[in-house]
Structure formats: structure tokens, C-alpha cells
């Protein structure tokens, strides 16, 4: 899970989110900025992996009303398998822009939905003019960029409820590529194959990116491979992962987003 999904896919999404605007939209300019982000990710000390990373393996559960076996009951899987089917990691980026901002990466199998997205939660303002309780408890604004299955962008922000009373409610604005543009859809792999044929390397990882990504995830992989998980399975199929993942969230982030 960490070896494949995090190193190859999720860290690429992190770099695209955190990178500075490149000087030009060329392969080297884009990859230069992505490499800077990977180089600025704080390395997790081997003795503190459990403070920043959680692994999981699903047990029996239900998805869309259908009963499903646990991972260890799947065909061809050892009854004492230590293979993680879920991982969540909190990364910190030590640079001028992102100092103190946590980045949460999460991936798992047998979740309630198959979905990939980047969600950016805005900080609460340092001073709230409205001191009523319902204002204090209002959700922070959030922008979500959907990668799969329905490509698009959603923005959640707070608005005043019409009327004489002061009430605030979160609302959504939603953009869908499928609804906005007619014509046949093209898969991501079609785009990559076309880029290969035209020699455009913008979307492909450069050697220094790959090496930096491995340097980020290697301490987690080595720590988990050196000691078995004592609590597998630790989440049911059809849920959003083990409860231990909630402990990764920093103050002010009381729960994981459920897409």
C-alpha cells in the first residue's frame, strides 16, 4: 500500500498541490518545482513513525448492503497476513509557504466509496466577529478537487441563512467536467500515452523526484516491515479505516473528510 500508492501516486498529488507556480509550463520547469516540495518534506524519524503514520487491514464488513470477507479470508491470502490494506500519513513541509500546515495522505481498500480527491481546508480566521455559538461551530471553508470518478471541483463555504436571525450554514458550489463538456471522455492513461508519443515529459516523474519520494516513504516502510501489526484486522470493510487514524489529525481537525 505505502510502497505503491503513496510513493508513486499520492506524493505526486501532494507536489502538484504544494508546488510554487513554475516559470513556464514546460516539463523541466514543472518538475523542478515538484522536486523542491519533495526535498522540503520533513523526514519522519524512525523512532516516531507511530506519531505520523497509521496502517490498517480490513476485516469482514458490508459495502452497499453486501457482506464481504476480511482480507485474511480472501482467496490466496495467508490467514496471518501482515499486508496493510490501509495507510494514513501526516506530512509536514518545511518551507516558507507551508510551515506549520499538515498534509494528510490516506488510501485504503474496501472503503465505502472508490474515490480520489485533493481537499484543501482553509484555516479559521484569527478573529470571529460573530460571537454566537452557531457561528463558532461553523465548518471551515473547503475546496475539493475530484480526480476520480467524477472529475471536477467543489467549493464549500459558509453563508448567512435568510431571515432576521443570524444563522450560518455551509453550502456547496460544484463544477463537473462531465456536465460542462460534451463529447467522449479520455482516460488518464490515454493522455499519458499521447504525451509519450509527442515527447512531453511534464506528467512523468524525473529521477530526482523518484529518489526524493523514496526517501520520504522508506522510513515508514522499513519500520512497518520490521515489526508486525498487533491489531490486524483493525477496521471493517465498508468503513473509512481504523479509528487509530483519527489520532493523526492535528488540533482543529476533528475528523477525516468523507468524500
Account of the protein in words:
- The protein has 259 residues and is α+β, with helices and mostly antiparallel strands.
- The protein has one domain: Dihydrodipicolinate Reductase, domain 2 (2-Layer Sandwich).
- It has 7 helices and 11 strands.
- It has helices spanning 2-18, 27-40, 49-52, 133-136, 177-180, 188-198, 207-226, and strands at residues 53-56, 58-59, 61-63, 66-68, 86-92, 102-108, 116-121, 142-148, 152-160, 168-176, 235-236.
- A 4-stranded antiparallel beta sheet has the order 7-8-9-10. Strands 1-5-6 form a 3-stranded antiparallel beta sheet.
- A hairpin with a 2-residue loop joins strand 3 and strand 4.
- The radius of gyration is 21 Å and the shape is globular.
Short description:
The chain has helices at 2-18, 27-40, 49-52, 133-136, 177-180, 188-198, 207-226, and strands at 53-56, 58-59, 61-63, 66-68, 86-92, 102-108, 116-121, 142-148, 152-160, 168-176, 235-236. The chain is of the alpha+beta class and 259 residues long.
